[in-house]
């Protein structure tokens, strides 16, 4: 439910130094107090989004100290956070996703958010799939600010028109035909970066497309190895092999956002990636329908594979309970979630925020989320750590990336996947 905003107070200044972005933060009643925020939003589009939070916090008379660390699928980021906590310097709040929230709550590092959740009725407005990750043993430990979905195609409109403006690829065969046409026309069909989490984004969309929603839930969320017979595992990797034929050799040296730039600049036809691409495109003034198209990955219509950026409060971090309460209220405020997600390409992590001001891709994503939430086809992304625990995710990262690079054949990759889901080394 919409909440009353705290009274506005004076703004404060901040400084950005290299890869670390720092702002002094204190409550007016105590000039020495500060909140220390840690996050991994470092790309151009992500920085435009975090500025929304900076502005809201400043407007409420708070100062903060901010550290941004590139995520690498969150692995590098979590390492940096772990070092800070081990050295006795935990931040006040940290961005976190997926099962990492469960692990940090289990280890006793996080403050319970039950009081704020009950007061603001989070159980009624946060989608069920996200709640399962925000909570540990029935208690709230994280405040979700958005929903990114990963099973999307992002297609350059100008290149699509050069191919005769074919209709949206609704099936796997449609997608392969489109990629073949692009290659025949001298285009790079599929832009991909070098990191394993990106390769796993391809894998998870193919897995749903090949086996269906219920299969994905049983195999990758519930970790029921019996739900994945070896022939189906091999079939998924065969399709991965097909897509690998449309990737240019330069993928081994580029980041995900550089792959996005290839699509934006018309250097590649499409990218399979999360809705943060919409934020990158919007930063450059691009509009869906005019400059690019967003389509669900073929045969995954009705399914939302999601990543939800959440914030946790670290025990023993700087900042009073009053300051932390103000931060939580801001993060879960419907107006804030609408504002930040119109910039980021994501959508609010609440089902009650109007679609006003979102572009066509955002409005479609909101409709998809509301429908999938009710049908229980809104499921966590493997690549983004929202489907299964970190140990399983890391194993899948490795075997999927090795397969894409030609280091594993389809049979060996399928066998390794079955072992990963059954808990075998």
Automatic annotation (TrEMBL):
Cell compartments where the protein resides: Periplasm
Gene3D superfamilies tied to this protein: Periplasmic binding protein-like II
Keyword Transport: yes
Record's keyword terms, sorted: Signal, Transport
Natural source organism: Azorhizophilus paspali (Azotobacter paspali)
InterPro entries the UniProt entry points to: Bact_solute-bd_prot1, SBP
Pfam families referenced in this protein's UniProt entry, alphabetically: SBP_bac_1
Protein's UniProt name: Probable sugar-binding periplasmic protein
Family per record: Belongs to the bacterial solute-binding protein 1 family.
Keyword Lyase belongs to the record: no
Function field: Part of a binding-protein-dependent transport system for a sugar.
């Amino acid at each position: 439910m919409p909440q009353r905003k705290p009274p506005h107070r004076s703004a404060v200044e901040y400084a950005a130094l290299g890869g670390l972005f720092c702002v002094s933060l204190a409550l007016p009643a105590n000039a020495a107090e500060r909140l220390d925020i840690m996050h991994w939003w470092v790309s151009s589009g992500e920085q435009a989004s975090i500025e929304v939070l900076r502005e809201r916090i400043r407007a409420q008379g708070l100062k903060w100290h901010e550290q941004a660390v590139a995520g690498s699928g969150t692995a590098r980021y979590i390492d940096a956070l772990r070092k800070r906590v081990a050295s006795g310097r935990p931040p006040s709040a940290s961005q976190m996703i997926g099962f990492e929230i469960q692990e940090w709550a289990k280890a006793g590092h996080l403050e319970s958010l039950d009081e704020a959740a009950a007061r603001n009725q989070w159980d009624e407005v946060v989608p069920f799939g996200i709640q399962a990750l925000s909570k540990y043993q029935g208690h709230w430990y994280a405040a979700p600010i958005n929903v990114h979905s990963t099973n999307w195609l992002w297609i350059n409109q100008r290149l699509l028109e050069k191919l005769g403006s074919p209709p949206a690829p609704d099936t796997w065969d449609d997608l392969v035909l489109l990629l073949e046409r692009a290659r025949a026309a001298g285009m790079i069909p599929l832009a991909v970066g070098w990191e394993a989490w990106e390769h796993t984004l391809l894998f998870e969309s193919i897995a749903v497309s090949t086996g269906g929603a219920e299969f994905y839930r049983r195999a990758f969320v519930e970790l029921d190895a019996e739900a994945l017979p070896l022939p189906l595992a091999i079939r998924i990797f065969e399709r991965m092999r097909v897509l690998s034929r449309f990737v240019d050799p330069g993928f081994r040296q580029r980041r995900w956002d550089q792959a996005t730039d290839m699509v934006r600049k018309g250097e590649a036809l499409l990218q399979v990636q999360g809705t943060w691409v919409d934020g990158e495109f919007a930063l450059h003034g691009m509009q869906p329908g005019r400059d690019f198209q967003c389509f669900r990955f073929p045969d995954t219509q009705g399914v939302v594979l999601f990543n939800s950026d959440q914030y946790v409060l670290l025990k023993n971090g700087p900042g009073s309970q009053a300051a932390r309460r103000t931060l939580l209220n801001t993060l879960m405020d419907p107006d804030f979630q609408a504002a930040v997600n119109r910039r980021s390409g994501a959508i609010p992590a609440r089902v009650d925020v109007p679609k006003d001001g979102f572009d066509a891709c955002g409005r479609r994503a909101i409709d998809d989320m509301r429908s999938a939430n009710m049908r229980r086809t809104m499921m966590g992304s493997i690549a983004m750590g929202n489907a299964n625990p970190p140990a399983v995710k890391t194993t899948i990262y490795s075997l999927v990336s090795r397969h894409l690079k030609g280091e594993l054949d389809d049979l060996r990759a399928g066998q390794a996947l079955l072992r990963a889901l059954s808990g075998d080394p």
